[in-house]
Design brief:
Elements lengths: L14 H6 L14 E7 L5 E7 L1 H4 L4 E5 L23 E2 L5 E7 L2 H10 L1 E6 L6 H4 L15 E9 L2 H5 L4 E10 L11 E6 L5 E5 L4 H12 L6 E5 L15 H13 L6 E4 L2 H7 L6 E10 L4 E13 L5 H11 L8 E10 L13 H19 L3 H8 L19 H12 L17 E14 L9 E8 L6 E5 L9 H13 L6 E4 L17 H20 L6 E7 L19 E14 L5 E11 L6 H20 L5 E2 L2 E2 L18 E7 L16 H4 L1 H13 L10 H12 L1
Parallel strand pairs: 1-12, 10-11, 14-15, 18-19, 22-25
Antiparallel strand pairs: 1-5, 2-4, 2-6, 3-5, 7-15, 8-13, 9-10, 9-12, 13-14, 16-21, 17-18, 17-20, 21-22, 23-24
């Protein structure tokens, strides 16, 4: 549906302030007369804490206080499982752990005092490979998980062993590895904490779910919920990295501690990049073993997969990440026989949690790598092979539930292939072969991912619409607790509101910052906000219109949207209805490989994604382009190194991310609009989907160019060069 607001390339309400520098990010927040805090992180990956000596640090001029575990009312927090201490007491499990918090008059004094705190440790054995951590006799990270397995999910459908025992099928089998990834957002973690005029502990920072931060802080401080207030400033990127609290709870703890001592002064934390690299979670490394079988005619018959995730020292959102990965493990295809086992395993590495793609990324890499190898083994065109097996309306998933309506994976395949010049004869050839030692290749991959929370986790989103004016509506104020992290959700909400109310977009104001003023919207995650917030805003605006016609002045209505329910895995079979709905996409990548240097140059990407309805086409194009950059870095450049639990990758000096010089010559965002009947005006989520499929498409293209399969990321230039040299031997 096209209207006066939806489908238009409107200006984001935060755009001018951001490009002119007027926007105040958390690090910019003023604290006149305020204090500063610094965190002491653990030096050890696994050790008992014998003593924390703060005597010398306390003598530093300007030090106001040094907080340890004794100062935390309820020393536990966590996004899903409260297994993380705010400040560690008897044991550290990772260099991610915080041991003390220094409060001082200046940041310099706080840093100096932090460096003078002496912690006596008794080292414990370190385990950093989840496959080793699962073995009997491995060091135990948490006593409540003596085998270090935080969770195990499985799917059993049909009889994979019977298929693999046949002699008339083609079988491919391989191991795959996907690594840690740093979120690499522009703005490191920062914020201020204080006691407001009503005596409430207040945190002004940035994150992805203000109301959940509020709940976690209230639990940690043993306070009623209404005594905690969370305000969000604009975030300089997030990508899942701000779903977990980083500095929010520490700011709250410091403000609470100061108030108890009748020191009512604001306090500020600003992390530098090294602190950020250490102090927030990373993408989960996944070790995957796949075996897949197809008939000689190209029908996918069986997929068997074992996925082992390194979750680091604490749970974070790992349970939900694994659930997603297991459900996506056979890709967007009809497969009659499926056997999947997924394991979350504790190690002494950094904590791992939400990152754009959220488990689906790792599983899609394994599933699509298998599809590429199967197509090659069958001698079939890779697009044709995928089309033969792609999900359709009414298809039964591996979880033995029917895929929700508006299945569009086939359409994305055909649209991408047509745009890239694929024909009945197969993949396109370059207009002119690169000269010299340059090899050319083209690859394809498809994928899908859930929209909204899944597996029985209750999802809801509330919005309030307030209409003002005499006669005609003069202004609409929409209040909703969405997190604006750079993705443009404020404009999306405003456009959906304007469309529903039948007024110009410029007459809509969106308020989202303060947990005291806005209803809860849930997290900025799971590609859910356009879908969930859009539905809630549409409902609230429709109700406000009815009040306006009553007539009421001002007309105010609040509504809560709840999507259809989902269900959790059956513990033995995996049978469930896992997800509310899905987003679908296909990407085709063209590469050049330099055989002298091993460098892989991503030349062109065709990215076909179904968004149901493009509320703002400019946002859609930006999401696709940004995800391609992020996925390209994960695939070819970004190498986050931990050795025995210690960081070897400490800053951008050690961690390469794509620059403008690395970007493809051309990115073609191909926007499909096949309406999702559950979405507002047909909208479905997009944020994570363009991230999913570029890595396997690039590796397929490298194989097309060189004849070499790679199964580990990143594929750096030296990896390609060594493989090319090894082939010549």
């Amino acid at each position: 549906m096209k209207g006066q607001a939806i489908g238009q390339r409107v200006l984001r309400p935060d755009a001018v302030d951001k490009v002119t520098g007027r926007a105040r990010f958390p690090g910019d927040l003023p604290i006149a007369g305020g204090l500063h805090a610094k965190v002491l992180f653990s030096e050890r990956a696994h050790a008992r804490i014998l003593e924390i000596d703060t005597a010398e640090a306390e003598r530093v001029p300007g030090v106001v206080g040094i907080l340890t575990h004794r100062d935390v009312p309820v020393n536990e927090y966590g996004l899903m499982d409260k297994d993380q201490p705010a400040l560690n007491s008897d044991k550290v499990r990772s260099v991610f752990d915080r041991v003390a918090l220094v409060i001082a008059e200046t940041e310099r004094a706080a840093r100096r005092a932090r460096d003078l705190i002496r912690v006596a440790y008794e080292d414990l054995p370190v385990v950093t490979d989840p496959r080793e951590a699962m073995k009997p006799g491995a060091p135990v990270i948490h006593q409540v998980h003596p085998d270090n397995v935080q969770s195990h999910q499985r799917i059993r459908k049909g009889d994979v062993d019977a298929v693999f025992g046949r002699d008339d099928v083609v079988i491919v089998e391989a191991d795959y590895f996907t690594p840690h990834q740093e979120h690499a957002y522009l703005q490191p973690e920062a914020g201020i904490g204080y006691i407001d005029e009503q005596g409430r502990v207040t945190v002004h920072s940035a994150g992805q779910w203000s109301h959940d931060d509020q709940h976690q802080i209230a639990h940690m401080l043993d306070l009623p919920l209404d005594q905690v207030r969370v305000i969000y400033a604009p975030a300089g990127g997030a990508f899942g990295g701000r779903e977990d609290m980083s500095v929010q709870h520490l700011l709250a703890l410091a403000a609470f501690w100061l108030e108890k001592r009748r020191i009512r002064r604001p306090i500020k934390i600003v992390w530098d990049r090294k602190e950020s690299f250490r102090g927030h979670h990373k993408r989960h490394p996944y070790y995957m073993h796949y075996r897949s079988a197809a008939s000689r005619e190209g029908k996918l018959l069986a997929v068997e997969a074992t996925l082992i995730a390194d979750i680091g020292a604490y749970s974070s959102s790992s349970s939900a990440v694994l659930n997603n990965a297991v459900s996506i493990a056979n890709g967007p295809y009809e497969v009659p026989n499926v056997k999947v086992d997924g394991y979350n395993v504790f190690t002494n590495n950094l904590v791992c949690g939400a990152f754009r793609g959220f488990g689906a990324l790792q599983a899609t890499f394994g599933a699509e790598s298998q599809m590429a190898r199967l197509a090659d083994a069958l001698g079939m065109d890779p697009v044709v092979f995928r089309l033969k097996n792609a999900l359709r309306e009414g298809s039964v998933l591996a979880t033995q539930s029917v895929v929700p309506p508006a299945v569009s994976i086939r359409e994305t395949m055909m649209h991408a292939a047509e745009a890239a010049g694929w024909t009945d004869e197969g993949k396109p050839e370059p207009e002119a072969e690169p000269a010299g030692r340059i090899l050319h290749g083209i690859g394809v991959a498809s994928g899908y991912k859930n929209v909204c929370y899944s597996f029985g986790f209750p999802d809801k989103c509330s919005a309030r619409c307030e209409l003002y004016g005499e006669g005609a509506i003069g202004q609409a104020v929409i209040k909703i607790g969405v997190a604006e992290v750079g993705q443009g959700v404020l404009a999306t909400v405003g456009q959906i509101g304007a469309q529903t109310l039948g007024i110009p977009y410029q007459q809509v104001t969106v308020v989202n910052e303060d947990s005291l003023e806005v209803p809860e919207a849930g997290s900025c995650s799971a590609s859910r906000l356009s879908f969930m917030a859009g539905n809630a805003v549409k409902m609230a605006c429709e109700a406000a219109l009815q009040a306006w016609e009553a007539p009421e002045r001002p007309a105010i209505a609040e509504r809560t949207y709840r999507p259809r329910p989902t269900s959790m895995y059956d513990p033995e079979t995996g049978v469930c209805d896992p997800h509310v709905t899905y987003g679908y996409g296909t990407q085709i990548a063209e590469v050049e490989v330099n055989t002298d240097t091993g460098e892989v140059r991503l030349k062109e990407v065709w990215a076909a994604h179904d968004v149901g309805q493009a509320v703002n086409p400019m946002h859609v194009e930006g999401q696709i382009q940004g995800a391609i950059s992020q996925a390209q870095g994960w695939t070819l450049l970004e190498d986050f190194i931990l050795e025995e639990g210690q960081l070897r990758t400490k800053s951008y000096a050690d961690y390469l991310i794509p620059t403008v010089y690395d970007m493809p010559d051309e990115i073609h965002p191909l926007i499909l609009e096949i309406a999702d009947p559950q979405g507002p005006y047909g909208v479905r989520g997009l944020g994570e989907m363009p991230m999913l499929v570029l890595a396997p498409a690039i590796l397929d293209a490298i194989h097309d160019a060189t004849g070499i399969w790679f199964n580990r990321l990143p594929v750096k230039a030296e990896d390609v060069l060594l493989a090319l040299k090894a082939r010549k031997r």
